[in-house]
């Protein structure tokens, strides 16, 4: 039949190749992955348990409310929401889970930004880099996020570290894209003025381009943080602690109530983080 | 004005597009911009421009949009890389410089003022003005002091901590000017600096620039599409068309002797009364000498020339007055020999630099021709007819007097 035309070649062992590659990377970079797994894992545990959880919840809630109050321009809305929302999470006994989730989101976002901003700058400066990296970003964002869990486990075992790894892959693209966009959007006049006064490349970048692109970059960072948060449940599938794990286990036990409560806690966290990062972006004058 | 060229541009050419070499060859063969575009697909931005600007001079490059003037000014500080030719600033060839030396020249010698101001919106007025010094790593204290001085110079001493968006267009461009001046550059490159401003503010800025220029004596390269602006500001003007410089000259030369039809059409609309002076329209005067001649000679001269009055001077050509034919006739009848008896001294006089505009009202009220003097000495006369002819743009104009 017609389909035989398509059978001109045997099945391409694509999956085997990826397996092979993952194996090679796992073995070849073990010297790198193992210490990361160990030290970074320890650090995360330390950060969650000995830093965040050491802060009395009352202080933590008030501190967040204060931050919310000031970044929103001394308005009470978000501050009040933070107090009520975080208290509710505490009341439901999810404080420890919340702290673990915050740790995961915070570190994943931080790493995404540290990686993403320089790559975005590189893309804005080099056509070649732009042409190469753009499809990679598309790939990173369209590949179902679950898929990242597999190499993450291969590289880092289970726990928080592979969760961060998968989150970083999933959450970095917006920061890269928006940084690139922001710098490219800086008015040609200003770039020309900067050149005309004899700026070096880095002076131009730090004194003109980055300040001008700041709000665009911040919009990208906001997206990155939200994407990292959206990975919380997925990351829990490979053993990351936190609210996601509650959601997952209630799913397995068909426990609608517990699942809903953990879900609400994630939503509360998402709203607080989103509004705070968005308001950081607001022009002060 | 010193005779030291501070900017010297030789055969500067910019070709946009791919077949640069081919386009250059065609240019040298004398092909036009259109022909080259057809044959190679490349656009000639600037075509073998050559000129030099002396220290302290205001050199205006004028042309309509698309004439290549903005490209030309950007070639001079290499914001656009030239395809061929050389740019000498203070004797150093910019076109061959490496990036570091070029940056030094941009920092120390050339400052630019932009049409759309190009102020940094995230910086205060003071920080904007200090930008050039900041990137030279001048200490904060010193750069702010110099920036303040520059801002005070342009009349913005009171706006140091505002953001550019809080200022009007005219004020923003003052900041642009202050930012350029704070570097204390030798050369100011002004790219249509006043074109975005409304006419009244524009005129005000032109006056201020001239004021500043008279005290600072910078070398200014000014781009404009506005002929009136060019005439007001320029010591010399270069006219551009299709990437080529068509004519270079003083405002008067351009107006009086347009090099070709293009220039002529360009200058047609100019208000000639503001540009022409007494020296352009005066004629050789008929005179008699007060020490030698009497009424008879006066009468005879007037008869010969068919005029009804004649100017009286002394041996050193100092203007003494005039006599009319009537008085001379009367004197001859009464046998009066001394010209002093009939000399009239209420003669209208104008200085040799007086603008046509101002002569007009004087000559309108006067029965006799207007005398043109320079330090008391008679240089010529102006009759009503030649004023009107000059305004109409067709009178005989004597450039040798200019």
Write the layout of secondary structure elements.
The complex is a heterodimer of chains A (285) and B (402).
Chain A: H1 3-6, H2 14-28, H3 30-52, H4 57-71, H5 77-91, H6 95-125, H7 127-142, H8 145-156, H9 160-184, H10 188-196, H11 201-230, H12 232-236, H13 243-252, H14 256-280
Chain B: E1 5-16, H1 20-28, H2 33-40, E2 43-54, E3 58-62, H3 69-76, E4 84-89, E5 92-93, H4 99-108, E6 110-113, H5 125-129, H6 131-134, H7 140-153, H8 169-182, E7 187-191, H9 199-216, E8 219-224, H10 227-233, E9 236-241, E10 244-249, H11 251-256, H12 261-267, H13 272-275, H14 278-281, E11 287-289, H15 295-305, E12 309-313, E13 319-324, H16 325-333, E14 349-351, H17 356-364, E15 370-374, E16 377-382, H18 384-391
Parallel strand pairs in B: 3-8, 3-9, 6-7, 7-8, 11-12, 14-15
Antiparallel strand pairs in B: 1-2, 1-4, 4-5, 9-10, 12-13, 15-16
CATH fold-level name of one domain in chain B: CBS-domain
Percent range of helical residues of chain B = 25-40%
Backbone structural class of chain A: mainly alpha
Largest interface: A-B, 18 and 26 residues
Biggest beta-sheet profile of chain A:
none
Individual helix count of chain A: 14
Number of helical segments with 4 or more residues of chain B: 18
Count the strands of chain A?
Answer: 0
CATH class of one domain in chain B: Alpha Beta
Q: Roughly what fraction of the amino acids of chain A lie in strands? A: under 5%
Rg of chain A: 22 Å
Give the number of domains of chain A: 1
Q: What is the rounded Rg of chain B?
A: 28 Å
Kindly name the structural category of chain B: alpha/beta
- CATH class type of chain A: Mainly Alpha
> Span from first to last CA of chain B?
18 Å
Low-confidence stretches of chain A: none
Could you say what the CATH architecture of one domain in chain B is?
Roll
What gross morphology of chain B would you assign?
A: elongated
């Amino acid at each position: 039949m017609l389909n035989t035309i398509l059978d001109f070649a045997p099945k391409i062992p694509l999956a085997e190749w990826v397996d092979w590659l993952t194996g090679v990377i796992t073995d070849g970079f073990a010297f790198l992955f193992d210490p990361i797994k160990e030290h970074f894992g320890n650090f995360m545990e330390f950060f969650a348990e000995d830093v965040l959880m050491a802060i009395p919840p009352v202080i933590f809630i008030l501190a967040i409310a204060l931050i919310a109050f000031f970044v929103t321009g001394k308005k009470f809305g978000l501050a009040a929401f933070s107090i009520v929302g975080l208290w509710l999470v505490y009341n439901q006994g999810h404080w420890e889970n919340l702290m673990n989730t915050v740790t995961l989101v915070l570190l994943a976002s931080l790493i995404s930004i540290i990686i993403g901003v320089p790559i975005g700058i590189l893309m804005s400066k080099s056509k070649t880099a732009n042409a190469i990296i753009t499809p990679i970003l598309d790939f990173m964002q369209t590949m179902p996020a679950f898929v990242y869990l597999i190499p993450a486990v291969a590289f880092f075992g289970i726990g928080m570290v592979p969760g961060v790894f998968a989150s970083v892959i999933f959450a970095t693209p917006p920061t890269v894209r928006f940084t690139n966009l922001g710098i490219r959007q800086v008015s040609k006049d200003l770039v020309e003025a900067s050149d005309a006064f004899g700026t070096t490349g880095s002076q131009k970048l730090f004194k003109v381009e980055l300040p001008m692109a700041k709000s665009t970059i911040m919009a990208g960072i906001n997206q990155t943080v939200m994407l990292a948060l959206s990975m919380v449940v997925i990351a829990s599938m490979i053993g990351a602690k936190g609210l996601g794990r509650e959601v997952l286990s209630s799913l397995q036990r068909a426990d609608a109530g517990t699942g809903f409560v953990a879900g609400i806690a994630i939503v509360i966290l998402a709203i607080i983080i989103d509004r705070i990062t968005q308001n950081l972006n607001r022009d002060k004058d | 004005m010193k005779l030291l060229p501070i900017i010297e541009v030789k055969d500067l050419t910019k070709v946009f597009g791919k077949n640069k070499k081919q386009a250059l060859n065609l240019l040298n063969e004398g092909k036009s911009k259109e022909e080259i575009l057809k044959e190679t697909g490349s656009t000639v931005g600037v075509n073998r421009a050559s000129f030099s600007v002396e220290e302290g001079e205001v050199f205006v490059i004028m042309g309509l949009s698309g004439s290549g003037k903005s490209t030309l000014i950007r070639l001079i500080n290499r914001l656009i890389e030239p395809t061929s030719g050389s740019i000498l600033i203070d004797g150093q060839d910019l076109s061959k410089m490496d990036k570091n030396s070029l940056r030094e020249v941009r920092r120390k010698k050339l400052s630019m003022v932009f049409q759309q101001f190009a102020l940094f919106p995230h910086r205060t007025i003071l920080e904007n003005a200090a930008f050039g010094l900041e990137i030279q790593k001048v200490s904060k204290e010193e750069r702010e002091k110099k920036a303040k001085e520059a801002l005070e110079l342009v009349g913005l001493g009171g706006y140091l901590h505002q953001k550019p968006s809080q200022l009007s267009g005219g004020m923003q461009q003052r900041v642009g000017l202050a930012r350029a001046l704070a570097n204390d550059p030798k050369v100011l490159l002004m790219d249509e600096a006043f074109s975005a401003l409304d006419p009244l503010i524009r005129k005000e800025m032109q006056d201020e620039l001239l004021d500043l220029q008279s005290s600072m004596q910078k070398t200014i390269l000014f781009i404009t599409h506005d002929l009136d602006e060019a005439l007001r500001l320029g010591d010399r003007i270069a006219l551009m068309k299709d990437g080529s410089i068509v004519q270079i000259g003083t405002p008067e030369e351009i107006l009086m002797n347009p090099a070709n039809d293009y220039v002529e059409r360009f200058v047609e609309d100019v208000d000639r009364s503001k540009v022409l002076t007494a020296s352009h329209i005066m004629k050789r005067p008929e005179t008699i000498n007060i020490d030698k001649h009497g009424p008879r000679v006066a009468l005879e001269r007037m008869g010969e020339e068919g005029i009804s009055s004649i100017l009286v001077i002394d041996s050193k050509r100092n203007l003494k007055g005039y006599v009319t034919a009537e008085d001379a006739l009367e004197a001859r009848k009464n046998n009066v020999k001394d010209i002093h008896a009939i000399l009239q001294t209420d003669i209208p006089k104008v200085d040799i630099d007086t603008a046509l505009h101002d002569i007009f009202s004087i000559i309108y009220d006067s029965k006799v021709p207007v005398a043109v003097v320079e330090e008391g000495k008679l240089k010529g006369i102006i009759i009503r007819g030649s004023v009107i002819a000059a305004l109409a743009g067709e009178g005989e104009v004597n450039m040798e007097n200019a």
